[in-house]
Sequence to fold (666 residues):
Amino acid sequence: MPDVKYDVLGLGNAIVDVLARAEDDFLARQGMQKGGMMLIDEARAESIYQAMGPAVEISGGSAANTIVGVASFGGRAAFVGKIKDDELGKVFAHDIRAVGVAFDSKPAADGPSTGRCYVLVTPDGERTMNTFLGAAQNLTPGEVDAATVASAAITYLEGYLWDPPHAKEAFRKAATIAHSAGRRVALTLSDAFCVGRYRPEFVDLLRTGTADLVFANESELLSLYETKDFDEAVKSLRADARLAVVTRSEKGCVVVAKDDTTAVPAAPIKQLVDATGAGDLFAAGFLFGLARGRDHRTCAWLGAMAAAEVIQHIGARPEVSLKDLAGKNGLSV
Amino acid sequence: MPDVKYDVLGLGNAIVDVLARAEDDFLARQGMQKGGMMLIDEARAESIYQAMGPAVEISGGSAANTIVGVASFGGRAAFVGKIKDDELGKVFAHDIRAVGVAFDSKPAADGPSTGRCYVLVTPDGERTMNTFLGAAQNLTPGEVDAATVASAAITYLEGYLWDPPHAKEAFRKAATIAHSAGRRVALTLSDAFCVGRYRPEFVDLLRTGTADLVFANESELLSLYETKDFDEAVKSLRADARLAVVTRSEKGCVVVAKDDTTAVPAAPIKQLVDATGAGDLFAAGFLFGLARGRDHRTCAWLGAMAAAEVIQHIGARPEVSLKDLAGKNGLSV
Fold:
C-alpha cells in the first residue's frame, strides 16, 4: 500500500459561482425552486444573468468547496474536475491552488466554457442555484489518476457527478481504485432534486458499499427513501450505509453508525448571510477529522464549525483559516 | 439647452477588481506601496495573481464605482469606459447595467483583455491596488457622445484617465461639451501617486476652470501642492478651485468653497473591513446631492454615509440600496 499523500481527494464539477442577492419574487418570476439546484443550458444561463442584479464571481463547486475546506484545516488535499482554458477556468484553478490544493486536471482547449452556477441569495440567506455545467460536462475516467487516488486516505465524490454523461464512470473508477488500495470512499447526495434524478443508483452505491460514508441533508435523506418520516428514513439509512451523517441545518447533525447514533448540535452563528456551501464545509470538517483518526463526535464538531463560518459571509469558501478557528474553539487538529 | 437626462455621467477606466486578503509582509515581498495604486503590465499581473491568495472578482473602476453609487441613490446615471468583449468585460457590463446605469461603450473585439485591478486587503482593512489597464488603454475621444454629455447635469472624470494614452483627450472633449451645454464638470484626483505623475496638468485643470469641482483625499491634496502643511494646501486649493471637497478618512471631510469652509464628520462604522471604494462612494453621495440641488453639508453627509457603507464589506460597490439607507438616516433625497 503506498503512503498516504493526501488526507482527502475530491472529484466533482468544477464551477465558478456567480452570486447575487435577489428577492423572493425574482425566484417566482424566473420559475426557480427556492433552495434547490437546477441544471440549465447556455441560453437559460444568458437569460438568468441578464435578469439578475450585480454579482460577485467566486470559485465554487460542491466537492471543490469541501476540498478547499480540508486544505484550510491544514489537511493535504487534491481535486479532480474539468475546466476550460478560459478566464473563469483560470479563476477556478488559481483559487483552488492558492489554498494549497493539488489540482492537475488539464483544462479543455475547446468546447463549452468553464461551468458556472448562478446563485441567488434571498434576504433569508437561502441560496437557489442554477448550474450551467459547461466544461464539467466532459469529465471522463481518463482524468482520474490511479496513483493519486491510491495515495488519498479518503476519496470524496459528489452525487452531482451523475449529471454529466461520463463523470459517473470517473466516479466508479475512483471508488474501485480507492478500495483496491485499502482506502475509504465518501459520497454526498448533493441535492434533493439530484437524489430524485438518480435514486436507485444512489441507494445501490450505499448497499454495495461503493461508498463507505455518505453525507445527506434532511431533504436529501427523505427524498432517498421517499418518505416524510425522518426516523424511518434514518432506520433505512442505517441498514443500507456503513456510516452516514445527516445534517439538519440549525438542528445540527446525526451521525448514523451501524451500532450507534450520535447527535451533535449546530455551532452558534450571529447572522445567516448566505447558506451557500454549508453542506460542503460541514463535509470538509468531518472528512478532515476522519482522515486524522478523530472520533465521530469530534468530526461532527469540526464540520459544524466550518459550516457556521461559511454561512456568515457571501460565498461558499472559508474566509478565515479553519485550522486557526478550530484552535480557538479548543479543537486543535 | 437639452433636458437633463442624467444626474451624473462618469468617464473612467473600466476595471474588474480581483480582491484577496493579504498580510503586510506579502506587500513587502512584492515591493508594493501600501495604500497606493500601481500600474502594472500583463506579465506583472500574471506574477502577482500567481502569488496572491484565493480571490473574489467584483466589478470596480473608480469612476464606475461612483456612478453605480449615484444609481443606488436613485440617480439617473451613465458611464463611458472601454472593455473588451471577453468574460470579464461581460461581467463589468452586466454589473453596471444591472443597477440601471446606461453603459453604451462598444466592447473592443480584439487587443488587450478587459482591465483588472489586483487588490490586496490587509488585516487593517487598507487596500493596495495593482492595475493592469488592458482594454481601458484604448479609450478615445470617439467614445464620448456629445448628446449624452450635454444631457448630464454633472460630468465626472477621474484623474486616472491621465494614464492611458488618449483618455485625457476624451476627458477634455467631455469637459468642453459639458461646459458648452451649461453643465458642471467634476474631477477626482484619484490617487497621490497619480497626482505625482500629472501634478502640473491637474493644477491647470483647476485654475482654468476645466473642473468646477474637485475631490481629493488628504494625501492627494498634499501631493498636489507638494507640502506637508494641510492648512497651507487648503489655502492653495481655495485659490485654485471653484469648489473642492477634501476627504480625511475617519476625520470626515472639508468642503472648500471660495467664501466658506464646511467640515462634516465621517459617518460611524462598526468595523473597517475593506477600504476599497471609500473615496469613490463619497463622491457618489456628494455628486448625487449636488445634482439634486442640495446644500454642501447635505451633499457631504450623503457622501460620508455611502463611504461608510462600502468600507464595511468586501468590494467597492454598495451592497444595499443607498436610497433606502439615506431614508433610514433621515436624508430622503
Q: What stands out?
A: The two ends of chain A are 25 Å apart (CA to CA). The first helix of chain A runs from residue 24 to 29. Residues 257 and 292 of chain A are 18 Å apart (CA to CA).
